[in-house]
Write a structure and sequence with these properties.
Distance between the termini of chain A: 63 Å
Structural class of chain A: alpha/beta
Oligomer: homodimer
Shape of chain A: elongated
Number of strands of chain A: 12
Radius of gyration of chain A: 26 Å
Strand order of the largest sheet of chain A: 2-1-3-4-5-11
Helix content of chain A: 40-55%
Chain lengths: 346, 346
Amino acid sequence: MTETVPRPTLEAVAARAGVSRATVSRVVNGSDGVREPLAERVRRAVDELGYVPNQAARSLVTKQHDAIAVIVAEPETRVFADPFFARQLRGISKELTAHDNQLVLLLTEDRDDHARVGRYLAGGHVDGALVFSLHIDDPLPELIRRAGLPTVFGGRPDSDGGRDGVVYVDSDNRGGARDAVRHLLGLGRRRIAHITGALDQTSGVDRLDGFRDVRADTDPGLVVEGDFTAASGERAMRELLGRRPDLDAVFAANDLTAAGALRVLREHGRRVPDDVAVVGFDDMQPIAEQTEPPLTTVRQDIEGMGRLMARLLLRDLDRPATADEDTGVMPSSVVLPTTLVRRASA
Amino acid sequence: MTETVPRPTLEAVAARAGVSRATVSRVVNGSDGVREPLAERVRRAVDELGYVPNQAARSLVTKQHDAIAVIVAEPETRVFADPFFARQLRGISKELTAHDNQLVLLLTEDRDDHARVGRYLAGGHVDGALVFSLHIDDPLPELIRRAGLPTVFGGRPDSDGGRDGVVYVDSDNRGGARDAVRHLLGLGRRRIAHITGALDQTSGVDRLDGFRDVRADTDPGLVVEGDFTAASGERAMRELLGRRPDLDAVFAANDLTAAGALRVLREHGRRVPDDVAVVGFDDMQPIAEQTEPPLTTVRQDIEGMGRLMARLLLRDLDRPATADEDTGVMPSSVVLPTTLVRRASA
DNA sequence: ACGTCATCCGAGAGCGCTCTCCCGCCCGGG
DNA sequence: CCCGGGCGGGAGAGCGCTCTCGGATGACGT
């Protein structure tokens, strides 16, 4: 039933317009050098026939695909717990479609998948890659480097500092964390605890570093490791209450963790923010607004990050990564600012 | 820098193995009719050169792309509020990669996007489409039908009953709703309210229908329209408490809505489940387990739905939608069962 | 030993497009 | 009035692959 009618080819359009293939090609691709009356005739033929260029044939000669791979390397948990991922995708999608590029999504879970991804990237199906949520020691960056594809990372990868040519987009996790802690200080809190994020991701490490920047001399007992999940927030909060029942503030590495902490605080009869002030990170809707009380948190522009990643990559594809003629530097990473959003919890 | 080394072609492999292109092609595509010693020689040449077939060239002749479009037509809100979408994607992704198909993601928001999607599908970049979250009166199905692409829908589309050849995968929303309401009846509740989902989606309508199946004679004042968001749950719950302060149970169209209702109930000092029992729908983690109290809800296998959609589509691509030789029927839709998950809220 | 047939492999066409020539036309200058 | 230059348009090669044919090779029957 779905017997596709053979689609018209360039040839067919050319015949109908009474010109050569080359001329049709020129018109279709918007190159100049075709005089108006002729061009118009071609255009009419194109939509009379409903001509759509065959992408495969085009790619075969141009070696371009107008397709970008988006690789999400996340072992289940976090991706689904918070809408982070969906929102970045939306940003990427917008930017990509605006430039007529398609988005090829690769979800990976384990090492086998990595091999598959490596093969895929090396297979030359896409012009570039956008890569997410790397964990420290992830083999993916190396695979990608070997595939030799232009790539932009989402979040600072675990490289030895600015390794050559690695481009990424990240939020100012460290700065945001500092702001959060300073805000708590400003409220007069002094016994400020931190529930960290996953410390095998740079975002977790950076937020911890930001906390330490402001509270260098803090009691180590006030820092408990979490992993960005709500469950870890609950566990950590219990531990903290056991160790330091006199704490008067908590900075949680993200909103989910903060939500978990909030529940435990309530369970233990601590009033928020009166007894314990709580600050989260991400300003993730709908979580942040719907905790009890609504969460004071650090906002990052997630969709914007996605959009920016795509833009950086497309720019690089346009004119491949040579040193900038003005500044003499390679195309560089971008760290986006964060802002503190005050609600009721602190 | 990213000056891609020209990749080896079939020709090159053939030369190295001392055979013809055709033979290499046969070996690479696993077709039989190449004797062992030769085949082995070819295989060696392939990986000595690191040969990877050029997909564009292949598509050009086979007219296949081994790519599937996944279209998510959702105006912002819901997609990100709950992880529904991400989870279906994961299911789809697994199935697709298992069959060496790539996943091309198309996110659409408004009518302009629809036109773009129509063009894309007609453009013959993909072999089939998986389509999500249609709203009633959505023009998308018609566009897709015209593009003549094999398609599977996620969720029952708003068609006039079983329109010819429309294949979809859905949960048994109506049956699940019945189970939920019967469960409340079983607890001895009699003044059972329902906060509906978005009634421009079949899932919302079906759940309402399920509610009515069991409570045909219910006071219309006990039904308030929502839209699957937590905010609508709050609003609806307030309205219900105003209208029918004596209600003793609420069936909410999804977990997010239930979470909103729960908050309002708490605000008003109603104990759950003692005063008012609450049941949600979806069993969406982490929402359902982390409400106060944890939510009794109707579980559907979301990832399974995704996987099934992909499987159905791939099967159809394998041997195009002709009537089944045994049963004489067209490939049909699938409605997956739901199960009630008892937690504390009812 | 010769014919027959199946089997394995290679030659070559062609998928639909882009892009490099190159030719022909028109215009302006000498 | 003729010639040179420039530009619009066409011819044709070729991108890397698949697939149909037909030729060669060897097994087998007689």
